[in-house]
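Weekly structure sync, notes
Attendees: PL, DS, HV (note-taker this week)

Item 1: Transcriptional regulator
DS walked through the input record. Source organism listed as Candidatus Kutchimonas denitrificans. Sequence as pasted into the shared doc:
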Amino acid sequence: MEAKVSSTSQLDRLIHQRVRLGIMSALAVNDTLSFSDLKALLGITDGNLSVHARKLEEAGYIECHKYFEERVPKTEYRLTELGRRALGSYLDRMETVIRAARGA
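Item 1 (cont.): predicted structure, written out as C-alpha cells:
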C-alpha cells in the first residue's frame, strides 16, 4: 500500500493555529471587531489575543486601528485583502484535506 503525500504540508501555518484561525474567521464575517469583542468571542486572555493578533498584523493579514473614545483607548481589527485571500486559500486546502480523509 503506497502512502499519499499529505496536503496538510501546504497549509498556511500562520493561519492553522487555533486562535489565529479564530481571529481570521471572526473578521471574515465582520467588517471590524474590537479587541474586547474578539477576546470574549474566542474566550482567551488579553495577552494571548495580543500575541496572536500581532503575528497576523505583521504578516499583513489584519489591520489594527487604535483610537480614543471619550478618553478610553479602543482597538479595532479588520481583515485585509491579503488576509481574505490567505484565508480563502487556507479553506480551499482544508477542504481538499477533508475530502482526501473521507476517501472522496
